[in-house]
Structures are given as structure tokens and as C-alpha cells.
């Protein structure tokens, strides 16, 4: 049977099972062979009855002492009992309502039994064990992720059948690479991952399959990178960034300068820049992008800046309009709520080239938006867009330079994979005068005092946030609860102060009004029942109370806290939580002890796994079947180097030797990931 043949032609699979399997992502024979077990049952560690611990899964080797007997204990419940012995001890064996299993056991024959031994005093029994005939020794048996109606044993059987009918499995990794990296062949690796001959062979198989998976990924990403390098971009003729710096009310940090320099160097070339600007909240990414936008405009080209939400787009628009107020740079805002007539005007001005910079949301990548000469595409908080959307903004120009900005600090190994196709600038330095946000974890008995502390700041002319995550079953309840919160704050403790409300059910325009009022200082205290958007920048806000802090993830809390401590004044974050489990306390204590985004991201990944990045698939990369971004850091580095090495020698993976590898890489990226 061909490896890419539909699974429904496999013996033992019909239409119904094929449908169930497809829910596990298994459509072809190959999918089945690469559907890896999660864990194994160890049937190789055979114990005697005497040695075997009670109430744990064990494997024993024993002879069936007699034919089974039936005991009807009540209607609908029959026990089938027999005895087994390992030559030293005898135990009872009981099957509930399973005559079929009992009948399979032959008196006098030797089997391996797998299950729990239970008993009291000297009495021992095994209930509903699994068993196979004893044939020399026991093996590890695979346990697969399951779907309704398809258990692990059934899958195991199908995998065995698949191996019987699949014939030779060609190895996509050529022999020379296998030899250099001491990798097992594909056939042996697949056999051993499903049916390990030994622990050692299992770990070799795992290593080989992880290598392959990451290697293909790296090859694909590196090739994307080099492909985008080959196209013709618009080179900037001169560097005007110095002029821009003089417009700023502050001096750029060393890290910001470095990032600007790296980017302007890139942009002087005729290969498009493809750069990720990664910097923790408050590190000043906007100013970096503004320098590039300025430079682009002075060179006579257009730029676009895309943000994931209207509120953020609006804020960027205002910030940039202010920075450019004494220049001749023309800037416009284009979002979903821009009135139609306005939109029309903006679009035509963009097309004619009258506008130098378009700031906006997804509205910027609508089909009918055209630019005259877009040379720089900036995307903010890029992790919230898919890779494909990132590309769409670029497609508005001919190979424009691209800068993506992200505040989501991710560990280096992850960055290598997710952004393997990008160059990296890191803002690892906060602007001068920033003070670490003091963070406290308290329980709700301290709430009054915390609120009192907030009030003190409001009286000083400063602003604050009270964030209160809601768990409401439906929209209506959420709305009620949000209104309630607002009422409690504005008519209760904070009576006489101007209190705003932000909640999850608001329309972008409503949110904007609330945020505008807060940014202008009119609103003193902002209550929020959702997170406050990443990127919101109100430096006068210096205090934040987070109610039910345990309901937020670590990174979320870090982002939230990043809304304060944005000016030179000391800022304070008070997390209130009455949750007293260890995990929560551990989490919240990490936050209280550090403001280092990288450290927090690391901890977050450790606690929650990389699901955030890899579960949501927002990054647009192919799914990983066996490699684990958290634990396989070493393999990531190894394969990255291996891929770079190979592409240096053979950029197009030419030659018969590499045909299978080339095909495999192309297949992996056939889902349409593309940078430009
Ligand atoms: P983020 O990287 O989170 O997007 P922003 O670009 O919003 O950060 O900048 C955060 C705040 O810091 C803004 O108020 C901005 O004006 C200010 N800022 C940026 N760079 C500097 C600097 N070099 N010195 C002082 N303040 C700065
Ligand atoms: Mg920002």
C-alpha cells in the first residue's frame, strides 16, 4: 500500500473508523505511521507475583490453572473467574461481564498479564487484566492519544497492520547527514517509536524523529528567508534618522539606537529588510519604528503601520502625529470605524502618494487599499497576527522592507523557530529614569488599604487602573457584572472621582472614547473587566490593582503590569488573591519578584507549556508531532546549525540524494506560509 493512500483502504478501517481517525488528523497511511504514542506500557519488566506491588500496573508471567467458572452475582453482572500461577504463588483472576476474554485463556498455557494486583491479607487477585501469550519476553507497548470510539489498543492494531502493508519507507534524510549526526534510519525509527525493542532504541528513535521534524522546519524557514533576500527591494538613498532624533523630547536608549541602526543599514540594501523588533513592554518600540518611518518618508517613500486593535492603532496615530507635528510628513488613520467617505478619500490619497504614512488595523490590508510606493511595512504586536496576515501588508508594495514588533518575550530557542525567518533586534534596555514597578501580592482583607493607596495617588493628580477579571457564563451576565463593578467603584470607595469602565463587550468606538478620556487625564481611575490592551501607553497612570489575580496567566499579568511604570514616577502594582494553592502562589510570587519579561516568559512556558504559541497556531507554522519546543532546545540548536550548514553547500537542495528531503520540506510548507 502507498504511504499516501487513504486510511480507509487499510484492513480494519471502514468509513466510520476513517471518520474517527480523521478527527485525530489521520487521513493517510503515513499519517497513521507518524501518529506517535504518548507513553508506553512496560510489558518488558516482568515481575513475580511475590515481587509485584499492590494497586499499581504491573506485568506478571503466569500459567492459567483451570478453565474459567461463571458466577452470576446479579442481573446483568456475571463474573468469570479463574486462577493463575507463576509457579510460586497462585492468584485469582476475575473478568467482569467479559466471557470473551475469559474464553481466550487456555488452561495450562503461559501468558503475560498486565494490570493491577489487589488484595487483603494473603489474598491476591487481578481484575480485568490485559494479556498476551508469552513468547520469550515482553515488550513496551504504545499508548496513543485517543478519540471517542477508538481506543489505544485498536490504534495499536491498526499501526501493526500498517507496518505489514506499507512496504519500504524511503528516508527523507540522506545517508551522509544521517551518518554525520548518528541518526537511525527512518524505518527503524518508526518501528521503535511504536514498538520499542528496548529503552535505548526508543530514545534513539525519538532523537531521530525529533531531528527530522525540526530539521525540515529549519530548512523551510531558512529557505523562506533566503528567498525573500533574493527579491529586489527599494533601497533608501540617505539616512535622515539624526534629524528625527532631534524631534524627540527624549534621548533614545542604546538599545533603541542599535535597533534603528541595524534597520537603516538593512534598508539601504536592495534586498528587503525582514526584521523582528522584540522588546519588553515599555521599552520604546514605537520610537524605533517612527525613526524608520521618518527616514522612509524623507527618502520619498510611503510606510504603513498596522496594529491588531483600533485602540492601539488610534494611539499609534496620535503618538506619531505628535512626533511628526513639525515636519511635512502626512499621516492618516484607517480602521474599520473610519467613516466610508473618509475612507474613500484616504484610499485615493494613499494611491496617489499624497500620504506618507498610513496607520491602521486590518483595514489596511483590505483588497481595495493601494499604495503609491510602499517601502516599509511595520506590524505591531505581531504575535497576534498570523504569519499570513503579516505577509498581506507587505503585498501592498513591491518587496517593501518589513519590521514586526512584539512585546511577547519568548525564549531564544523558541524565537529561533518562530522567527527563524526573520532577523532580530532586541530592546533589552528600558528608557532612563524608569523605575521597577513595585509589586505586592495580598489577600482580600487588605483591599481597603490597597484602594486607599490608590485614592492617595488620584488625589496627587495621578491615575490608576483597577482590573477585575470576570467569570460570567454569558454576555449578559458579564455586562451586568461590569456595570456593577463600575457602580461599586464610582459610587462607593471612589465617590467623587472620575471613574471610567472598560469591558469585553464594548465596541471599538466605545473603547476608544473611554481610552481617550483616560489618556487625556479626564478619567482618573479606569476599571476594567478585561485585560487592558497590550500597548496602551498612559505614563501618568502609576498604580494598578488586579483583583482575582489568580485568574490571569503569568504573561498576561506581566503585560497588564506593563501598563504602569511607563513614566519616571514610581509605580505600584497590587495583586489581590485569596487563592491558596501552591501553583497559584508560586506563579504570583514569580511576578512579584521580577519584572524581567524573559524570565517570566520562561516560567510561564514551564508552567503552562508552549501551548500559547504552538496550540493556537497563530504563528502559522506547521504543527509539530514529536518535538517539544520547551525541552528540545538542544535539538533546536543542533538542527538549526545542520540546516544552515546544508543550505550553505546546497541552497536549492539539488541532486537525487536530496530529492526526498526537498519534497518533504515543500510538503511541510505547502499550507501556504509565505513571507511576502
Ligand atoms: P512599547 O515598546 O511597549 O511599545 P512604547 O513605544 O509605547 O513602548 O514606549 C513607552 C513609553 O516610553 C512611551 O511613553 C514613550 O514615549 C516612552 N519612551 C520611548 N523611548 C524613550 C526613551 N528613550 N526615553 C524616554 N522615554 C521613552
Ligand atoms: Mg507598543
Number of strands: 23
Distance between the termini: 39 Å
The spatial strand order of the largest sheet comes to 13-14-12-15-16-11-17
Structural class: alpha/beta
Query: Largest beta sheet, briefly?
Result: 7 strands, parallel
Which radius of gyration do the C-alpha atoms yield?
31 Å
Helix percent reads 25-40%
Bound molecules: adenosine-5'-diphosphate, magnesium ion
Mean pLDDT equals: 88
The fraction of residues assigned to DSSP E strands is 15-25%
Number of helices: 23
The general outline is globular
The low-pLDDT segments are 611-619, 672-676
Describe the structure concisely for a colleague.
With 676 residues, this protein is an alpha/beta fold. α6 packs across α7 (199-230) and α9 packs parallel to α10. The chain is 39% helix and 18% strand.
Describe the overall structure.
It is a single chain. The protein has about 675 residues and is an alpha/beta fold. The protein contains 23 helices and 23 strands. It has a 7-stranded parallel beta sheet, sandwiched between helices. Helix 9 (about 255-265) runs parallel beside helix 10 (about 285-300). The longest helix is centred in the first third of the chain and has 32 residues, at about 200-230. Residues about 610-620 and about 670-675 have low confidence and may be disordered. Bound molecules: adenosine-5'-diphosphate and magnesium ion.
